[in-house]
Amino acid sequence: MDDFKGRLTKDGIRIHSQDDFAGMRSAGALAAEILDRIAPMVVPGATTGALDAQIEAWVNEAGATSATIGYRGYRHASCISVNHVVCHGIPGEKKLKDGDILNIDVTVIVDGWFGDTSRMYAAGTLSRKAERLVQVTHDALFKGIEAVKPGNTFGDIGAAIQSYVEGHRMSVVRDFCGHGLGQVFHAPPNVLHYGRPGTGPVLEEGMFFTIEPMVNLGRPETKVLSDDWTAVTRDKSLSAQFEHSIGVTSDGCEVFTPSPGNKFHPTWS
Ligand code: MF3
Ligand code: CO
Ligand code: CO
What we know:
Bound molecules: 2-amino-4-trifluoromethylsulfanyl-butyric acid, cobalt (II) ion
Structural class: alpha+beta
Strand content: 25-35%
């Protein structure tokens, strides 16, 4: 009786049904497929605006809806965050240069379900220090995912990510976090990418949320530019981010946004 569809925990976290996993799987699959398809177009000389226009066209061709167009006044189908941009970079006319690293973040709505994923790309040749940052950020996301199972806490996820990142002498951004999602874009809880083991809400089967750590080579502080969206590192150091949407299962979790072509990481083709 207490696991009817739509139950909320005392922290306001929705517990979803088995059928709801299927909805998230379709939405996540489209978002991930779009991130696969854009990869060959991420080359020096391409503009982030052109990449976004292509993404928007694919969302529409699929009969889906962009979750970001119209969201709090945002006007694009993706966020594209280059080099020291931490997140929420606005696509535009600027051309990518050889050696740039960038995050592309896409959220689509399919049959009412939200699929939210982002990953890193490199335009041209990846420098050694950028490659290290990208690798640590990718692996930090998976340290977080490995901490997901019923009975663990959200603090366990944050602690796993933070200890991994800081062990590599990089820093975890505190100013942005992951989030519950499902039939809404942003729902409780805030999924922090730092924290203490055993703290925060207890994970339960049927919770859906993102993990999307942002990692800086320098200090963790960020600032938002006057466009009210673009978040950058205060010290102008390079920043990276990877994001999956996941659902808690009886013994772990299901990733809703795996790359169909196994291209989640820029050095995998
Ligand atoms: N997809 C982002 C996230 O991971 C949110 C982007 S909101 C936008 O939560 F308006 F900036 F697109
Ligand atoms: Co997200
Ligand atoms: Co996102």
